Amino acid sequence: MSETATTATHLVTARSARFSAAAFNYGNIISLLAPFPLMIFWLGASMFVYCMNRHHPNEKVGHYTQQAAYRFYGVTGFFVAVAMFLPVNLNYYLIAWAVGAAILLPLTLRDLARIRRESWEDMEILAEPQE
Fold this sequence. Notes:
Elements: E1 9-12, H1 14-33, H2 35-54, H3 59-83, H4 90-117, E2 123-126
Antiparallel strand pairs: 1-2
């Protein structure tokens, strides 16, 4: 039985790569809008987005995803640790959210601007051979 190796390629468009690079940043912004329900959901969904995009065929997508994740997980991890020592008063938690937003929002917007200015090109990648 002889097997013929067929090499198929898959096109990753520049538009798709640019959106993938920005996806984690978009999630960060949306989670900052209403932190109590959305931040919790984004914490779980962000792990999926990170796994999908960190090892994208376009290395720039992985880089921007990793930078956005470092910021988000660093800020949220810090404030989880700080929240252990805050008094049970909503004002303290709102202040923590405002400080977190003041850290994340400018850096996230900066990255989105960089992603938009970056030159993105279509890529052809080899697809897995199918039997």
